[in-house]
Design brief:
Blueprint (H helix, E strand, L loop, with lengths): L10 E7 L6 H11 L4 E6 L6 H11 L3 E5 L6 H14 L4 E6 L9 H7 L5 E5 L6 E2 L5 H17 L12 E4 H4 L14 H11 L4 E5 L1 E2 L4
């Protein structure tokens, strides 16, 4: 009987960028502290501040950093779909998506990955015990977030506490079961719609607490 340990999952961490020149390189370096074996995919929407060029420089210096350049600001949803298609094509096991402005602290990455042992989608949640928001989260943002999550539970049948955040890990084999052409959202509503489609292919959902930070 072989005693060789089971191979670790192949992890891709995706970052959609627009004008993140000051954040991108330190963020990738911090990601590598908490997920040293993960690949990183930067999807840049032709940032006027030169984020795309910085991404290329980092990819030339660090192993397993990939860059997709897009023609303009095409929407967060389409960027995430490109990351999902890339993960499927390159046969990754997990796709972990996070914002590129440090609002999603990389120190929570290990908790998301650990939860994938028993789930197909792990959500970094602001609304489970231990989660929260640091800094300025004004009334308007609270009202919008509460309304969005109420809509997702009532009309989409999603029972998660936090359906609107982007800090998530997906099992790529379940993403491959979806027909991406049916997805209509291109902006922030993508976060709820993709969970609905995950539900239709039988995904098991989990949530782990995170602290959402103000962007740098």
């Amino acid at each position: 009987m072989s005693t060789q340990a089971e191979a670790a999952p192949k992890v891709l961490i995706s970052l959609a960028t627009y004008n993140e020149a000051g954040n991108l390189e330190p963020l990738i370096e911090q990601i590598r502290q908490f997920a040293p074996d993960a690949s990183v995919l930067v999807i840049d929407d032709n940032s006027p501040d030169g984020t795309g060029a910085i991404a290329d420089a980092v990819a030339g210096r660090l192993k397993d950093v990939h860059v997709i350049h897009r023609s303009g600001k095409l929407g967060l949803g389409t960027a995430t779909l490109e990351a999902m298609a890339f993960a499927i094509e390159k046969k990754f096991d997990y796709l972990l998506n996070m914002d590129a402005d440090f609002s999603h602290p990389p120190r929570f990455i290990p908790d998301l990955l650990a939860g994938m042992a028993d789930h197909d989608v792990m959500i970094g949640s602001r609304y489970v015990p231990g989660g929260g928001v640091e800094g300025d989260f004004n009334f308007k943002r609270k009202f919008m977030s509460t309304g969005i999550n109420m809509y997702a539970r009532t009309f989409l049948g999603l029972t998660n506490r936090d359906n609107s955040g982007a800090f998530r890990c997906y099992r790529v084999s379940k993403l491959a079961e979806m027909d991406f052409s049916k997805i209509r959202s291109r902006g922030y509503s993508f976060q709820e719609e993709i969970l609905y489609w995950c539900k239709t292919v039988g995904c098991r959902f989990g949530e782990t607490p995170i602290l959402f930070m103000n962007r740098r």
